[in-house]
Amino acid sequence: MACPTAVLTGPEERLLTALAGIEVDRNLRRDFPEELSMPSVARRLGVVRSALHNPISSLESKGLLDSIKSNVIGAPRKKTVLLITKKGLEVASNFGLIEKQTTKLNQILGRDKEIEAICRALESPGIVVLTGLPGIGKSSVAKAVCSKLEQEKKKVGWHTGSRMTSTSSLIESWTDIPVSENFDELGDGFDPNMVYILDEAQEIHRRHADNIRRVLENARHAKILVVTRSPSTFSSLSETLKITLEGLEIEVAARIADHLTEEQATQVAIALDGHPLAIQMWRDGDDVPIPGTPVADFISSTVLDRLDTNTAQELEDLTLEPFPISRGDSITDLSIDNLDDATILKWSGSRFESQHLIKHVKLASLDEDKVKSIHERLVDRWSEIEGFEARGHEMHHRILSGQSVSKGLAEDVFDNLGPVVASTLLSDALDNEERGDLRILSARAAIAIGEAKMALRISEGLTEQADRLKIEMESFRLLGKESRFLAAEEELLSKLGEPERSQVLIRGAVRLHDDRLPGPISRDLGDEIIQRLDRIEVQVDQLDASLLASDLILRYLVASNLGDAVKAAALRSEIVGLIGEGHRRLEEIDLRLKLKSLSDVNSEDLEKKLRKIEEKHEKLRIIHWIFAAAGELSPTWAIDTHKSIFLQDNPPIRREHARIEAFSWYWRGFYDRDQRLRYWSEAAARLRLIGCSNASMKLIERIYHEVRSQRQ
User: Residue 373's pLDDT is what?
Assistant: First the structure.
């Protein structure tokens, strides 16, 4: 059936055209090329990102476009990705904006036998491990398997391993559900009708590799293909079918070198034992290797030897980079072009790294002192480059050059590149130097990605007992071990003097109120909050004003929610005496309580009030209160307003902004059943990251319930 005619504005048409022209491998699920990220699309169209908000919202409302926060290939942080829908492609085609959009089968020469064997094995639950030398074609075979399965109408989940892969990022990209440290429970998240592919498994950092291996070995009912070099953590997986790729047959291998004559191609194919990437690297004028020449020797003596001095040095730098880089980062355009012409670069969108075969050979040729000197040189280079990603590179090179990492740099990486990147770098840093501040950050990173047991192991090395107890409290909350959490907290309180003890009690009460999914305050929760506040022993005049205000506001919210009007009125008077009647914080609380029942509010007045608010997070906060009051009966204008602004690129400035953003993903999933798992998974991850471990845990329970319900 033809798609109904849609009316597009000029900006909408240009955006749709740009997206329709980008080839997307949908098998990647949540790992998309950088060309689809909002910053890249804006650059391509020559506009600022804010200029895309209106056309994006309009195209989304017409069902022509989806905007999501997703992993981007080669980038250490999630970005807003723009995906044209099937309907959008039809509209673009009908308008003549594109000639055609086709999904083509990845075809590679000489691997039919292996592809068939892998596909046949993946018809039943189990793990297939595909191994072979660097550059032998493992990823190409995996992509061909992926395409073949897709053509057979089978669902495929794909993840490319890297230093940015953790257990949580792998499972979430495969299944759209958040990770649990209960590996048996994780099995419920795998769809028995789906095939899961992990490519480049050997690139996963050792900090996460062992946990991921345990996840794979416990996924008894899943169909999984693991692609890895050997030896690696994953090449020795137990109870698997192992398939090793060898060189191509000479007749086939000669056909892949279309830049050579037939005679040259045959000679080179024989000499290099059918190694496809090495054959493509041979150039006219190179000596034909002696038959049986090891591929590594050919790379060293021929491919690398023909590079000029500057390009060779910059290749050394590139092989030691922890993440793919872009033009303008740290290597000259001339060297990039030279390396690309020599088939030495591996591209992911606009980012690149050295081919793993080249990296493997180059690193083997460098001694320890040389490697250290390169890292030192790269510290100087990256420290002068601005941007969050530059700090990740700088931290990596400081660690591996033996330099100390400042707490500020480590916190910068944690806050801006996220806990997965931080967890790997901090693991390396602690191998380099034992420091309490780095160990605390490492434990926090583990908690943020849901690895409470790992956080407990990391915290065992802390010499300051108070620091260890704080990590234990967070970890036990995440594990749902309330009695152990309370025991750790009591021990901590016994060691603290004032005002620190009161601070812990009040902040703990605030967390009890905030660290939960939307809904009314129960009598039990209200009593728990008040009992905690009643344990404060210092006089009121000894409390910091902001802590005292928090104490009174919490009591006021509990009394109001539980219907104690007399107590609520008295507490409100105390709050007014402390911060003033017109204080913004009090006005917000009054509005929040008023919105407990939408029948008491004029919907038109509320809509007008929201239109006057420009700041994204202030607007979202009020909409969330409306949602909490009305649930499924929320007004359409509130749902539509929320959808139009919740992905706007306004970074959180305060901690409460991050909490609002986390709950915006919860509410999107509440109202969008089709995308519920994806939205709630993102919400759970964000809640965990900001310390709302109880809310995250409860949401994960709901997600697993949704998964089970869908499969019954």
Answer: 97
pLDDT digits (tens, 9 = 90+) for 324-350: 998 888 889 999 999 998 889 988 767
- Write the class of the CATH domain 10-94: mainly alpha
Q: Which helix (H) or strand (E) holds 656?
A: helix 655-671
Give, in order, the Cα–Cα distances in Å from 238 to each of 129, 208, 235, 377, 439. Answer: 10, 18, 9, 42, 33
CA distance 166 to 223: 20
Q: With the CA atoms of 578, 579, 581 and 584 taken in that order, what torsion angle do they form, in degrees rounded to the nearest 10?
A: -160
**Is the pLDDT assigned to residue 653 strictly greater than 80?**
no
Write out the H or E segment, with its range, that includes residue 475.
helix 465-479
Residue with tokens 């060309």: 35
pLDDT over threshold 70, residue 459? yes
| Dihedral sign of CA atoms 208, 209, 210, 215 in order | positive
Task: Give me the pLDDT at residue 354, please.
Answer: 94
In this predicted structure, what is the pLDDT of residue 73? 67
Q: Is the peptide bond before 33 cis (omega within 30 degrees of 0)?
A: no
Residue with tokens 């790269």: 378
Please report, for the chain, the start and end positions of each structural domain, with discontinuous segments joined by +: 10-94, 112-244, 250-303, 309-493, 500-594, 605-712
pLDDT of residue 78: 67
| % of the chain residues with pLDDT over 90 | 50
User: 554 is written with which tokens?
Assistant: 């919490």
> Is omega for the bond preceding 231 within 30 degrees of 0, making it cis?
yes
Yes or no: say if 464 and 479 are a contact pair by the CB < 8 Å rule. no
The 10 Å Cβ neighbour count of residue 364 is 10
Residue with tokens 């003890």: 501
Tell me yes or no: is domain 605-712 CATH 1.25.40: yes
> Hey, what are 441's tokens?
């950050």
Distance CA 364, CA 356 (A): 12
Contacts of residue 232, defined as CB under 8 A and 6 or more positions apart, other chains included, come to 201, 202, 209
Name the helix (H) or strand (E) containing 511. Answer: helix 500-514
Phi, psi of 180 (to 5 degrees): -125, 145
Position 618 pLDDT exceeds 60: yes
Averaged over 210-215, what is the pLDDT? 92
By the 10 Å C-beta count (0-12 exposed, 13-18 middle, 19+ buried), 43 is classed as middle
112-244 architecture in CATH? 3-Layer(aba) Sandwich (3.40)
Distance CA 699, CA 710 (A): 17
Please determine whether the domains at 112-244 and 309-493 fall in the same fold group of CATH. Answer: no
CB within 8 Å of 665: residues ≥ 6 apart: 646, 679, 680, 682, 683, 686
The 10s digit of each residue's pLDDT in 347-381 is 876 789 999 999 999 999 999 999 999 999 999 99
Burial annotation 471-505 (CB, 10 A radius, 16+ → b, else e): bbbbbbbbbeeeeebeebbeebbeeeeeeebbbbb
pLDDT above 70: percentage of residues in the chain: 89
Tell me the CATH architecture of domain 309-493.
Alpha Horseshoe (1.25)
Of residues 89 and 234, more confidently modeled: 234
Q: Do β-strands 155-160 and 194-199 pair in parallel, antiparallel, or remain unpaired? A: parallel
